[in-house]
Amino acid sequence: MASNINAFEMAQRQFDGVADLLKLDPQVREILRWPLREYSFRIPVRMDDGTIKVFQGFRVQHNDARGPNKGGIRFHPAETLDTVRALATWMTWKCAVADIPLGGGKGGVICDPATLSVGEKERLCRGWVQQMWKNIGPRQDVPAPDVGTTPQMMGWMMDEYSRLSGEYTPGVITGKPLGGGGSLGRTEATGFGVIYTVREAMKHLGLDSSKCTASIQGFGNVAQYAAIGFIEFLKGKVVCVSCYDREDKTSYTYYKADGVDPRFLMSITDQYGSIDKAKAKAAGYTIEAGDAWLTKEVDVLIPAAIENQITAENVDKISSKVKIVAEGANGPVTPEADEVFKKRGIFDIPDFLCNAGGVTCSYFEGVQNDMNFYWTKEEVLEKLDTKMTQAFHGVLEMSQKEKVYMRDAAYMVAIARVVKAMELRGWI
Ligand code: GLU
Predict the structure, then answer these.
(1) Is there a common fold for 37-176 and 187-354?
(2) Distance between CA atoms of 187 and 198, rounded to whole angstroms?
(3) What is the tens place of the pLDDT at every residue in 3-45?
(4) Which CATH architecture has domain 37-176?
(5) How far apart, in whole angstroms, are the C-alpha atoms of residue 114 and residue 424?
(6) Is the pTM above the cut of 0.70?
(7) Rounded to the nearest whole angstrom, what is the distance from the C-alpha of residue 247 to the centroid of ligand 1?
(8) Are the C-beta atoms of 318 and 341 separated by less than 8 Å?
(9) What is the C-alpha separation between 354 and 14, in angstroms, rounded?
(10) Nearest ligand 1 atom, CA 72
């Protein structure tokens, strides 16, 4: 379903639109349109068969005016420097909109983690850190998991950094496993955060959440906990999720009119993220083409997979019943599709607000690492809810005050905070 829109051009176009609205100084604009630093490097890895394979790695640091760069590392076969640039830029806005004292960064490796053994993955993770360790750190740049990377990988990366720097340094990376410096609630944080913003949007629109239905694209970490949150917190019904099938090399939508059971689906999902089709069918799920999720007559659409999914080509397939689009993924809606949302009056919760729960919990993880004192899950989730709710209402207020769409309002809030930090530091 993905079209060929360059994600970084999309990030720049979104920024330019708001920079025009804000009449942003051209020099400030020039600083913020581009990442401040970019690293592109090769990672030689000894494979299990004794050969050496060289992987391409990236780290982009967009802006650290508000604090150390922050953002995940993706392991994805279609990774490019431009996608990493876009994602790093969105991290700057995400941390600013969530009002956490961090900047924006993102990393990547061109690879398909599902084709690597455990040992190969570990050596690739350690290799990434060997190339980057001088330029990351708790006060410089703090990576985290993203598409294709896991808490275990973060554990290896933290270990490699600690070994090279000669000091146990849990704060160099977040999303670590529990017992290895990780925070309770981090696994759930992004998906639950999505649902906290959906809850606030429903209150704003006067919708009764227990009567609402949702359709979710994806069944990775974000989609799984968004589905659980929609059902358990909002008492709503999720009629389908979609999922990439490794064997068939295509995506399917898993639909159940009386509501999917995300915990059951998680129990039949393999380690690479594919749902067992036979078991799903036996449990009464209808398996449909991958983009069927987009066409369902639901109140809420939650694209929670990857970028460029709702585009000019398919936006018209969205049912007239849809009232809210909650962007669990980064960059799932293209600017052309955005225009259609505006015309149709769909309430969009933009990505860098909607999915900010992950990085917010990462920030809490770093705080706990620094204190060497750990909170309970209830404490973490309560703090997360407070932060997400504040962020949502900050953006909503801006959108009402300036009479702009939620994405533009989120940019306005974020850009103003980053510009202020640059001023205070004497950069501009
Ligand atoms: N990869 C996640 C994101 O896109 C989390 C980043 C983090 O925790 O630093 O927001």
Answers:
(1) yes
(2) 19
(3) 457 999 999 999 999 999 999 999 999 999 999 999 999 999 9
(4) 3-Layer(aba) Sandwich (3.40)
(5) 45
(6) yes
(7) 28
(8) no
(9) 16
(10) 1
